[in-house]
Design goal:
CATH topology: Phosphoenolpyruvate Carboxykinase, domain 1
Number of domains: 1
Strand content: 15-25%
Order of helices and strands: EHEEEEHEEHEH
Structural class: alpha/beta
Strand order of the largest sheet: 1-6-7-8
Largest sheet: 4 strands, mixed
CATH architecture: 3-Layer(aba) Sandwich
Distance between the termini: 45 Å
Number of strands: 8
Helix content: 25-40%
CATH superfamily: Phosphoenolpyruvate Carboxykinase, domain 1
CATH class: Alpha Beta
Oligomer: single chain
Radius of gyration: 19 Å
Length: 181
């Protein structure tokens, strides 16, 4: 099965789960011990404790600002839309790919945004946790057998390398610096 992560530079995971059903994702969530099952009056639900990170921090939104780009002047830059250079993005991208390439298993889902076929986008999500895949599968539109997403139709790829924290990156950089001396 073509899963489309090798073109990103992710080549080492031995198993990649693509477009799993809700039941399959639930099995992986439980098997991987990613959370707990809570009993509710509506039935059992899977819960995840994300710790102090309960949502997207508005001050953690960064957009690549490319000098000379016509779009650079159309973005409302400030404390919410913070600019980064293309070089910083490339460094972060390389770190995310290296992190994901160390994983034995990854989860991939191809989903749509928007119900209108003339304006929707096809997004590929790459995750290291089943619960993250479950979340986006619930939030976006699943393709059907009659309306599949083909490899060439992917408009955007989102890589969730949640285990590659700034602390790990700083530590790895510090260690690389010691080895170079």
């Amino acid at each position: 099965m073509v899963v489309g992560v090798d073109s990103l530079g992710i080549k080492n995971p031995s198993t990649i789960y693509k477009n799993l059903t809700y039941a399959e994702l639930h099995e992986h969530e439980v098997k991987n011990n990613e959370g707990k099952i809570a009993k509710t009056k509506y039935g059992d639900v899977f819960t995840v404790d994300t710790g102090k990170f309960t949502g997207r921090s508005p001050k953690d939104k960064w957009i690549v600002k490319t000098p000379g780009s016509p779009l650079a002047d159309q973005i409302w830059w400030g404390s919410v839309n913070q600019p980064i250079t293309p070089e910083i993005f490339e460094d972060m991208f390389d770190q995310a790919i290296a992190h994901m390439d160390k994983k034995e298993e990854l989860y991939v889902a191809d989903l749509y945004t928007g119900a209108n076929k003339s304006s929707r986008k096809a997004i590929r999500f790459v995750h290291e946790k089943a619960w993250q895949q479950h979340f986006v599968t619930n939030m976006f539109i699943r393709p059907t057998a009659e309306d599949p997403i083909k490899e060439e139709d992917i408009d955007v790829t989102i890589i969730n390398a949640c285990g590659a924290t700034n602390e790990k990156v700083r530590s790895e950089r510090k260690e690389r610096g010691k080895r170079k001396r």
